Amino acid sequence: MKLEKILDDLFAMTYHAGIKPGLERITTLCASIGDPHARLPVIHVAGTNGKGSTCSMIASILTHAGYRTGLYTSPHVRHFRERIRIDGVTISDEDIARLAVPLMATARDIGGTFFEVTTAMALQYFAERRVDVVVLETGLGGRLDATNIVQPLMSIITQIDMDHMEYLGTTLTAIAGEKAGIIKHATPVVVGHHGADVRPVFERKAERERAPIVFADDIVDVQCDRIFPDLQMSVAVTSIDDRRYMMTDLPGVHQTRNIATVLAALPTLQSIYHIEDTHVEQGLRRVRATAGLSARCELVQMQPPVVHDVSHNPGGIRALVDTLRNAGYPERSFQVVFGAMSDKDVDGMLDALLPIAHTVHLCSPHIPRSMPVHELTKRAIAIGHQSFTTSDSVGDAYRRALTTEAPTVACGSFHVIDEVRALSEQ
Q1: What is the predicted pLDDT for the residue at 304?
Q2: Which CATH number characterizes residue 388's domain?
Q3: What is the value of pTM for the model shown?
Q4: Same domain, yes or no, for 370 and 277?
């Protein structure tokens, strides 16, 4: 069977099986392939914001320390294989086909989901390749997420915010309770930036599990020192008895919180793996190249500047805009290629883009959930955008933006970046 057909069938499971929190089906799937998770040393990461970047930073550091490092993240930007990587190298198409077919057959019999099959596939692949460590990102929540089948070396919880409320609850404390579900008995846990109202949620769960807990805000402070036009960032790191400067290729004030979480996790990691200061410095400086993270405020061309970013909510767009302004780009200087899904806060995103947008090139990715261009246009006008174009496709909008000598940024949806990057493969 061709890979394209296999992936079509796999993605179709999203619509047939939907999202089903619970560990029963992933337990059955993993049992059918010999319980690969039982043979894997895992760092398990949950959270609302920043977990993908946090996972990639940790994986990059471990790779620079010489460890064969598996990394499982979602969603992908361009290709499914981006979800499963070892030392930044994606799983092959051949391995996807070999592993997916029997797992999909089992999943159909038990009502398994796309994410459950993908998770089992990743665990089996990492076990076969005998990696030294796996950095595993949750999909949705934590307590009932398919990845929570693992018994990790340590758990990490990044920032908590309101998201997926139909599954996780309608308050921050309820959502934090679901994320806290990855805390396991006697297993160290590190909690990143958080509000005072959710701290007791993590403390109570850690106490019940007798799990040592560390809050990053208590032990390390990371501040943005400078963001350069090439979108490298210098940060000032202050701990109890030390102050130093480090560089990273993941820019933005929001990334300082993720860096603090990673640095707070280091003492536990160093009790298991040999990680030197140089490994940390190299790992943070080269996250994209080492771990394979892409399209997070990524400068893909310097002259004129072209930036790709998968932000798809107002908070993400605000972080992108702040980063570009802090890098020295003038106000209202960008050609903005923008498309979004109808179920997202499009008005909030368009409003957040006002400070940097010279012209907004409105477009609609080729998937059913996309907001039509005529609706985007009405909303852009209502928000206050005075210069805009409309295009029948993301590709046309992107090509139009690039005809100017001004900087360009494409954002609003993973699907926008997917279609933008497809142009380079033609």
Answers
A1: 94
A2: 3.90.190.20
A3: 0.93
A4: no
For residues 224 and 193, membership in a common domain is answered with: yes
Q: 287 and 362, same structural domain?
A: no
- Tell me the CATH number at 237: 3.40.1190.10
Query: Are residues 200 and 319 part of one domain?
Result: no
Q: How many domains does one find in the chain?
A: 2
Q: Quick one: 346 and 276 in the same domain?
A: no
Q: For the ranges 169-183, 307-321, 364-378, which has the lowest average pLDDT? A: 169-183
What are the pLDDT digits (tens) for 366-411? Answer: 999 999 999 999 999 999 999 999 998 999 999 999 999 999 999 9
In this prediction, residue 160 carries a pLDDT of 74
Q: How far is CA 198 from the centre of its chain?
A: 22
Instruction: Kindly state whether residues 110 and 240 are assigned to the same domain.
Output: yes
Which is more confident, 13 or 15?
13
Give the confidence band of 331 by pLDDT, cuts at 50, 70, 90.
very high
Q: Which residues pair with 245 in a beta bridge?
A: 236
Beta pairing, strands 133-137 & 42-46: parallel
Give yes or no: residues 116 and 149 share one domain. Answer: yes
Give residue 230's domain range: 3-291
Q: Are residues 346 and 259 in the same domain?
A: no
What would the 3-class secondary structure string for the chain be? Answer: CCHHHHHHHHHHHHHHCCCCCCCHHHHHHHHHCCCHHHHCCEEEEECCECHHHHHHHHHHHHHHCCCCEEEECCCCCCCHHHHEEECCEECCHHHHHHHHHHHHHHHHHHCCCHHHHHHHHHHHHHHHCCCCEEEEECCCCCCCCHHHHCCCCEEEECECCCCCHHHHCCCHHHHHHHHHHHCCCCCCEEECCCCCCCHHHHHHHHHHHCCCEEEHHHHEEEEEEEECCCCCEEEEEEECCEEEEEEECCCCHHHHHHHHHHHHHHHHHHCCCCCCHHHHHHHHHCHHHHHCCCCCCEEEECCCCEEECCCCCHHHHHHHHHHHHHCCCCCCCEEEEECCECCCCHHHHHHHHCCCEEEEEECCCCCCCECCHHHHHHHHHHHCCCCEEECCCHHHHHHHHHCCCCCEEEECCHHHHHHHHHHHHC
